[in-house]
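Thread amino acids onto this structure.
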C-alpha cells in the first residue's frame, strides 16, 4: 500500500491554538474531523491515520515547535519509509492574501522558519501548500501578527480556504502533485457544490 505523509505546521499548546501560524494545524484538524480520524500523541507529533482508495495517509502535527519542524518530518518519513514525493507540507504564508492557496511541487522556504528547518534536513524536493494569512501589520510587528489569533470575520473568510485545502489533500493523494496544481492553483475559494464535483472528478481520474 502506498503511503503519504501530510504535515500541517504549527506550534503545540493552547496558547497557540487559533493563531495564524497554526493554520496548518487547523487544516489537518478539519481534514481529520471530516474523515473521522483521531490524533494520537506520538514521537515528535500528533499522528492520525486513514486510508483512501488503497492508499495510506498519515497526518502529522509536529510538537517540536515551528523552528524544529524538520525533526518531526524527517523522523516520520524514515519511520514509515515514505518517499519525499509523497510528502505534502501545509504552511501559513504572509506573502499571500488571507485565504489564497498556492500549491508548489518544490521551492525555497520563503523565509518561513518551519520550512527552513525542514529544508536543512531533507532539502527542497517536496510539495508544499502555502496558505495566505495576509500581512496587515505595522513595521516590526510581524511576530505579533503570525502569533495573533484569527478574529471571527477572518475565520469566515478562511473557511472556504480550509475546505478547499482538504480537497487538495485528497487530490494530492489520489491524482498526484501535477494534476492537483493544475486543478486548484489560482482558485482560492470555491463553493461546496464545486468542491463536491471536483472531488468526484479526482476520484474518477484516479480509478
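Threaded sequence (207 positions):
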Amino acid at each position: 500500500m502506498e503511503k503519504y505523509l501530510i504535515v500541517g505546521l504549527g506550534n503545540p499548546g493552547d496558547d497557540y491554538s487559533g493563531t495564524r501560524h497554526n493554520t496548518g494545524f487547523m487544516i489537518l484538524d478539519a481534514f481529520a474531523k471530516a474523515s473521522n480520524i483521531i490524533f494520537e500523541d506520538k514521537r515528535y507529533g500528533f499522528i492520525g491515520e486513514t486510508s483512501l482508495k488503497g492508499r495510506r495517509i498519515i497526518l502529522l502535527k509536529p510538537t517540536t515547535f515551528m523552528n524544529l519542524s524538520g525533526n518531526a518530518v524527517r523522523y516520520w518519513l524514515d519511520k514509515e519509509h515514505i518517499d519525499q514525493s509523497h510528502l505534502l507540507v501545509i504552511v501559513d504564508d504572509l506573502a499571500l492574501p488571507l485565504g489564497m492557496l498556492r500549491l508548489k511541487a518544490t521551492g525555497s522556504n520563503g523565509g518561513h522558519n518551519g520550512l527552513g528547518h525542514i529544508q536543512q534536513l531533507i532539502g527542497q524536493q517536496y510539495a508544499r501548500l502555502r496558505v495566505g494569512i495576509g500581512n496587515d501589520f505595522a513595521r516590526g510587528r510581524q511576530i505579533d501578527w503570525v502569533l495573533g489569533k484569527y478574529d471571527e470575520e477572518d475565520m469566515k473568510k478562511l473557511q472556504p480556504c480550509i475546505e478547499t485545502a482538504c480537497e487538495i489533500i485528497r487530490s494530492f493523494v489520489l491524482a498526484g502533485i501535477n494534476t492537483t496544481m493544475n486543478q486548484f492553483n489560482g482558485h482560492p475559494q470555491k463553493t461546496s457544490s464545486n468542491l463536491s464535483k471536483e472531488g468526484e472528478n479526482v476520484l474518477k481520474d484516479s480509478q
